């Protein structure tokens, strides 16, 4: 367990060190309008949605599934809330809007769960349906326009602070709750059992279908909250771009964190590290000024390096060659 | 085996039938041009943004005003839908075909069909990539390099002393991003005092603009001006500047391109300093060109959309009538 987290941890530290060397001001923290302000705070704030979605994704992947629809669900949550808020500045309207959005997201999660657990469709195909259709639904809700809102209560979700950004506090709270619920009870073991072998676990008396259904609903609700964070951060819902490709970031975070895509074994701490690595990488690109043409290549090189050093085979091959050369 | 093949064949035939049905549905039902009224077939890209919706409305309104019979179809961002719509217009023998190509390539065959049927073609908003320029009469649309130059001109005219500019680029590789950067750099080259100290892509989105600007605010010791390739990234930058405890428009000046309603509102409120217009309202120019083309008059192969620029004062005056 410790060993699995060692390498992603080292990767994160290395990325942060790179920032320290190139832009020493990256680590500067100060108090601005009563909250912390600095590069690290940005990493936490902007990484919060990815982290939240990755937590949901971790549980889905642990059951040997995958959820590609999270980005679209995030866009729907943002669209529904912003359309509901409209021009109203009240806190009440914002709360009702968010509640409607999250209930809707839970319903979308039920749909995914129905396709996967109820009909037995391959998760990658089942959630692809909502990934494609979801963005269309969000476009219908916003009528293809960017909906700008001016509501202070809503702004707090993604851009607000209680010393630290509220968004990261929400994500960490969810992480803590999930860790408690799955590690202090048998739930975690049951999820892993379903991931290892759904049929055997069903025969052993585990309610595999209910568990699969639950993780998809949970993932959709996480995606919904993340969508609220993303849109609240800029006080606008953009059905085209809210949460675009975030499913890929989330899956990457889960994999970097050491959770196997084959299901069965998962690490929440690893997911936390993975999400932070991805956001640090994005912020690093901006701060050290990587040219836009090579940004994607730079990111790919970092990701592949992290994945390689995690692979025992690759590490063994590398050290073998070192020995051979010397 | 045979059964499988026949099933597959019938499924394909069924698909083809429904496809034809939807194609002709989009193009309207009246046939051919009659008498003096000009019939125009227009194949729009889709309805992906507020800019595009305003573009569509302008074309529909101006066609009505000019007495041109407009057959309109929406391609939902798919090239095959657009090709289908154009073929339909050819069959209906419209007088003019106009369209905004979804992508740059792959138009030669269908445009050759139009040419053989003697139907002139006008491109709007986006160009096509083809060696054969006889396939279309003219291309009406914005000059993105010129938009960058206008932004650069304002920068040069309003710079006092050394100025550090950060640039929020559009999607990497997109024509507006490349050209708006080029035009701006061309103009500020005359003043060595003005330097672009950082430039990153914000993908034309508000979240992108905000995230990049947050990083710039930490890594750059002195930022005087933000140049954003569209309004949305500029609006994101405003949020980031506010969170850093600075006043957008005063401590850090902002120049953007597009002039959509949200951008104009921020300009009127003093949070943006200057906006270069990228005008979707090209309906009127399109109808004028159409009339000329139908009469057989010569038209220039490239017509640039009439576009202006807005200062804060002009924005306050223009905002109430802003349609998009």
UniProtKB/TrEMBL annotation, chain A:
Q: Where found, per UniProt? A: Cell membrane
Q: Does the keyword Transmembrane helix apply?
A: yes
Which topology term describes how it sits in the membrane? Multi-pass membrane protein
Q: Which InterPro entries does the protein's record reference?
A: ABC_transp_permease (IPR001851)
GO CC terms, sorted: plasma membrane
Assigned keywords, A-Z: Cell membrane, Membrane, Transmembrane, Transmembrane helix
Residue ranges crossing the lipid bilayer per the database entry: 43-61, 68-86, 92-111, 123-141, 161-181, 211-231, 243-261, 294-312
Q: What would you give as a GO molecular function for this chain, any one? A: transmembrane transporter activity
Q: What is its main location?
A: membrane
Lineage: superkingdom: Bacteria
Q: Which PANTHER family match?
A: ABC TRANSPORTER PERMEASE PROTEIN YPHD-RELATED-RELATED (PTHR32196), GALACTOFURANOSE TRANSPORTER PERMEASE PROTEIN YTFT (PTHR32196:SF19)
Task: Name it.
Answer: Monosaccharide ABC transporter membrane protein (CUT2 family)
Can you name the source organism? Lentzea atacamensis
Automatic annotation (TrEMBL), chain B:
Annotated localization? Cell envelope
Gene3D superfamilies named in the record: 3.40.50.2300
**Signal peptide per UniProt:** 1-27
Matching entries from InterPro entries are given as: Peripla_BP_I, SBP_2_dom
Q: Does the keyword Signal apply?
A: yes
Q: Which residues form the Periplasmic binding protein domain?
A: 46-298
Q: Superkingdom of the source?
A: Bacteria
Name the keywords, alphabetized: Signal
Q: Looking at the Swiss-Prot or TrEMBL record, what is one Pfam family this protein matches?
A: Peripla_BP_4
The similarity comment for this entry is: Belongs to the bacterial solute-binding protein 2 family.
This chain belongs to the protein called ABC transporter substrate-binding protein
Source species of the chain: Lentzea roselyniae
The uppermost taxa in this organism's lineage are:
Bacteria, Bacillati, Actinomycetota, Actinomycetes, Pseudonocardiales
